Every structure is written in C-alpha cells, then in structure tokens.
Amino acid sequence: MYSELLWIFTQLPDDYIVLDTETTGLPDENGPPDIVTLGITVVKHREIVESVEFKTRPQKRISEEAQSIHGISNEQAAEFEPFDSQWCRIAEYLQDQLIVIHNASFDWPILLDHVARYGLSMPPIHGVFCSQKAAIPWAQAMNLPCSHRGPSLEMLTKALKVEDLRATINGRHGAEIDSRQAAQVSEGLRRKCGSGFE
User: Fold this and answer.
1) Does residue 98 contact residue 12 with C-beta atoms inside 8 Å?
2) Which residues pair with 99 in a beta bridge?
3) Is-contact 156 185, C-beta < 8 A?
4) DSSP class per residue in 108-129
5) pTM for the structure as a whole
6) What angle do CA 177, 55, 73 make, to 5 degrees?
7) Nearest of 86, 91, 94 to residue 125 by alpha carbon
8) Helix (H) or strand (E) holding 156
C-alpha cells in the first residue's frame, strides 16, 4: 500500500554507506554531545558487504540516560582511542559516498562539530540522505506512529518485517548494529517501491 510515497528511495544509488552514532547524550546549553561510538555499514550493489564500529573517547561525561540506551559507561569510554586519531580511517569510508543516516539532523551536525573541533578536514561526499525524514509520507499513510522527526528505526523494522538486529543485543542501541539496521530498512523501503506501485 502507498508504495508511490516511497519513490525517493528508488533514487538511492546502488552503492552508499549508512552512518550512525551513539553519544554522551543530547545537545544542551554546552553544545552538541560527544560521539562514543560511530558505526558505518557499506552497501554495494544494494547488498550489505561490511559493517564497522569506531569507539571514540569522549571529552564530555556520558549521561545516565545515554548509558541506559547504549550500555557504555564512562569507565569503558575512557579506554577508547581519541576521535582525531581514528579520523583518517573514518574519512576513507565517507569519501565520495552518499551517506544515509536515520535521523540525519541529529548525527550529522555532531560529526561536523567533531571535525571542526579537532581541526580535521571532511572528505568530499555526494550528500547526506535522511532515511527517517524520507519515510514520513509512507509511514503516516500507513498510520505508523511518528515523532516530529519521523518513524523510528524500530517501527520501520517491524512494519517491513526485516530482521530485528537489536534483538540480538537485548534491545540495546549500538552504532554498528543500528547502521546495519538502517541499511536493511532503506533497502526494504526501496524494494517495496521498486516492485511497482500497489
């Protein structure tokens, strides 16, 4: 039903990456939160071929709420490598790619803040695609619950009946697993539309 509302997903290239972050919390009066983990899933020829996770030492403390979501403590994060020491490897994945992010308005500004904060350079990219915003018309037509940001990754996973990867880690969020989940959902939405308007 309403597959014509998903046409934008048919415009995704066959090769792209999906990015997700877990952070110290939410933006506040002190600015954006710090990245604790950054996950990247590589899609080639519409198939997931690789997922990686970078664990980065935050400068800010992880809030109790954030710890309850991703399960990473301040003591654990203190052992991670600094963000800037891992940027070259992260940037290699980003270079010349379209970057898909579920809730791009949250993750992307945080990444740009880190790049600026550490005096790093962003490689050339093909753009950023927010899978959450792009799914809003279809989700609303299907009467799926949506926040002001759009349908959650969990809600789309259930609606599309794709494998729930979070279930393998007791429902916890994780940057690598969530980037992989978002890739599965994006391809599921593409297939739903690509099979012809219902």
Assistant:
1) yes
2) 17, 128
3) yes
4) HHHHHHHHHHTT--PPP-SEEE
5) 0.94
6) 90
7) 94
8) helix 153-160
CB neighbour list of residue 119: distance below 8 Å, 6 or more residues apart? none
- Which amino acid belongs to residue 183? A
Amino acid at position 78, single letter: A
Q: For the chain, which residues make up each domain, given as ranges?
A: 3-193
For the stretch 71-107, pLDDT in tens is 999 999 999 999 999 999 999 999 999 999 999 999 9
User: Pairing mode, if any, of strands 98-101 and 16-23?
Assistant: parallel
Distance of CA 9 to the CA centre of its chain: 16
The number of angstroms, rounded, from the C-alpha of 151 to the middle of its chain's C-alpha atoms is 14
Helix axes 175-194, 153-160, angle to 10 degrees: 50
| DSSP bridge pairs for 40 | 19, 52
3-193 has which fold? Nucleotidyltransferase; domain 5 (3.30.420)
Helix%, strand%, coil% for the chain, nearest 5? 45, 20, 35
Give per-residue pLDDT as tens, 134-183: 999 999 999 999 999 999 999 999 999 999 998 888 778 999 999 999 99
Say which amino acid occupies 153: L
